Amino acid sequence: MTGRHVGMNRDYWNGMADDWVEPGRLAWGSPNVNWGIWRNPETEVQMLPEDMRGMDAIELGCGTAYIAAWMARRGAKVTGIDISSGQLATARELAAEHKIDLTLIEGNAEETGLPDASFDFAISEYGAAIWCDPDLWLREAWRLLRPGGRLVFLGNHPLVMACTPWDGAKCEPTLHRPMRDMRTFDWSEVEIDPGGFEFNLSHADWMKLFAEIGFTIDGYLELYAPPDNTRDLFAISGTWARDYPSEQVWKLTKPL
């Protein structure tokens, strides 16, 4: 069953697609792999296998598909899926420009329609990691992965959600929202910078869900802004993010 958030987020990202053409172009053309809003380097975050030759990989919520391109350059056969036709138009244009062969599908990462056990590796940077229902997209990732396959994803740290004022202003060193039963965040009608519909969980609830599905946890990272950062990005205060983690990375495996 398709939730209300799916159509809401499709409309939001189609409306935003033009704003992400140039960032997508820059990421496709960059010689470096960097992650998240603070561009933490792959040498520190280590989200991708160094050698992906012979691997089937999928990016869940691929947007302009620059991560799919990074994986293809490491030797993987890559599929990207995204709900936004506008984002995928940019991805297809850049794939043709860079002569990189990707399979790009317009669809919902919560129910891809792809065959069981099709992939060795799955990844989401934001994308499905925050815009899709975790009860659905994580189970779909499990279904898509072969035994021994890995899932890594990066999204907002739950502390960001707890410290964001109810009007949508930038996060503060004050708790505004409860951690208990944290799950859904409808930003469509907030006063400041209205957006789409996001999901997040407390750490304990993430781990409970992984265990229910069957994933084992290989690693977890909390990401901060650089120590000298003063820039505000999106709803994240640049000074706040020097002292508090604004992003998280989960690294999971589907056991053999």
Present the secondary structure layout:
Elements: H1 4-16, H2 21-29, E1 34-35, E2 40-41, H3 42-45, E3 56-60, H4 66-73, E4 77-82, H5 85-98, E5 103-106, E6 119-125, H6 128-131, H7 134-144, E7 145-156, H8 158-162, E8 184-186, E9 197-199, H9 203-213, E10 216-223, H10 240-243, E11 247-253
Parallel strand pairs: 3-4, 3-6, 4-5, 6-7
Antiparallel strand pairs: 1-2, 7-11, 8-9, 10-11
Helix pairs in contact: 2-4, 2-5
Describe the structure.
InterPro entries: Methyltransf_11, SAM-dependent_MTases_sf. It comes from Actibacterium mucosum KCTC 23349. One of its GO terms (molecular function) is S-adenosylmethionine-dependent methyltransferase activity. This protein is α/β, with parallel strands linked by helices and 256 residues long. It has a domain of 177 residues: Rossmann fold. It is built from ten helices and eleven strands. α4 links the parallel β3 and β4. The two termini are 30 Å apart.
Q: How is this structure best summarized?
A:
Helices cover 32% and strands 23% of the residues. It has 256 residues and is an alpha/beta fold.
Low-confidence sequence ranges: none
Please tell me how large the radius of gyration is.
17 Å
**Shape summary:** globular
State mean pLDDT (0 to 100 scale): 96
Order of helices and strands: HHEEHEHEHEEHHEHEEHEHE
**Broad CATH class of the domain at 4-27 and 38-156 and 202-227 and 246-253:** Alpha Beta
CATH homologous superfamily (4th level) name of the domain at 4-27 and 38-156 and 202-227 and 246-253: Vaccinia Virus protein VP39
Q: Residue share in helices?
A: 25-40%
User: What share of the residues does DSSP label as strand, in percent?
Assistant: 15-25%
How would you write the strand order of the largest sheet? 5-4-3-6-7-11-10
Helix segment tally: 10
Pfam family, one: Methyltransf_11
GO molecular function, one term: S-adenosylmethionine-dependent methyltransferase activity
Protein name: Methyltransferase type 11 domain-containing protein
InterPro entries: Methyltransf_11, SAM-dependent_MTases_sf
